[in-house]
Design brief:
D-amino Acid Aminotransferase, Chain A, domain 1; OB fold (Dihydrolipoamide Acetyltransferase, E2P)
Amino acid sequence: MNLSELENECAVRGLSVTGTGKNGRVMRMDYTKALEKWSLDGLRSQGMLLPGCEWIHSNLESVMLAEPQKMFKSERHFNDFIGRSDVTAEQKMDGCRQVIVFNPGVGFELFSRNRSVVNFLFGSYNDQVYGWQRSITENVLPFSFAIDGEIISLNPTVNGHVVTDTMLNAVVAMLGMNQTDSYRMQAEAGYPLRLEAFDCLMFDGKSLMNETLVSRRKVLHEVIIKLHEAADRLALPQLKWIEEVPVIHGSFDDKLSYYNKITSVGGEGLILKVDSSIYNPREARGGLGAGYVKWKRNTTQSIGSELDAFVISCVPGEGALEGVVGSLIFGVYLLPSGELHEIGRVSGLTDEMRRSATLTSSTGEVTLHPDWKGKVFAIEGQDISPKTRSLMHARILRERVGADSKSPAQCVLQESVLNDLVL
C-alpha cells in the first residue's frame, strides 16, 4: 500500500500514529507498525498469538535486503569489493524468502518477507509445508531459534503438468493454495520443498542480529547439525530438508568462477556478504556500507548478445531534473507478432543527453525532441520484470551510429526469448 492508503487504514481503525521522521513526519513504516500492533493485540486478546509471531514482529521491520551492484560508481569499484578477502559469495536462490522460528512446545512457524494487506503482518505459512506442521515439529529440539533462508522446489512440475520453468513460481504454487490441495501437490511432486538456510537471527531466546555474520553462521551450522541429528533420532527425515547454503571464500577469480558456473545454467547470480556485517532488520539496505550486495546476471549474458532497442518516448524529470528529460523509454518489436513492446526505461543519462533529448513547449511542458525518436542504442539490464516484461535497472551501453548503426525495424526480439528471461 502507498502512504495515503496506509494513512486511511489507520484512520478507519482510529489509530493514532507517532511520526519518527524529520520534524515528527509520519513515515510509511510508522503507519505499518501501528497497523501491525493493532493486529497483534487482536491475536493476543483471543489467545491466538504464537511466540514466533510475536518475536519476529518485535524484532524485524523487514528481512535483511541486498543492495544492487549498480550502487558502485564503477565496475572497478565493484570488482574490488568482490575480491576482498572478507567478502564471501552465496548462490542467489530463485525461491521464496522465509524465516522459520522454532519454540519448544510450539513447533515451526514460517513467515514470508512480505506483509499481508489484510492484517499487515508478515505472511504466515504455518503448517503449509507437509512434514513441518507444528504438531509434528513441536518437540524436536529443546531450544528456540530463528533461521533466515529461501524455500526452493526441487521439482517445477505438479501432477505432470509444468507449473512454471522457474523454481519461484513452483514454490508459490505449492504454498499459496489451501492446505489439502497443497499437501496433495507436494506429495505428487515428491515432497520437493527445501529451505536453503543462510542466517541465524535468534538462538535460545537471544537475538543474534547485532553479532557478526561469521558468528551467526557458526550458530546456524550448529542448529542445522542438531536438526539433522533429531531427524535420525525421531525418524523425521523432513528435518533434513533444512540445509545450509554453500559459501564461497577466496579471491576475485574464485568468486567469478562460481558466478559463471551459476549463471551458465540459468541461475540468477550471487549474493556477496561482508563477514563482519550485522543483520539489518529494516527496509533501508545500507548504501555503500551494506552487508549484502546482489551480483546478478544481465541480459547480455542471458541471451549471448547485446539487446538493441530504440527510443519511443520519455518521462519528464522531477525535482532536480525538472525541465529536462528524466528517463528515456525504449522499445523493441516482438516476433513473430511484430508488436511494439516497451522493453525498458533508462534514467542513468548524462546531462548532455538530457538537454539534447529535451523539447520544451511554450508552456514549459517537457517532451522528447524529434531528433531522438527512433535513435537506436545497445542496452542491457539485470533481469526482466515478470509484471511488465521489461528490463529492470536498464542502462545504455552505446549508441548504434555510423558503421554500427541500426534502424528501429531491426530492433527485434523473439517473444519466447523474452519470456525465458523472466525470473
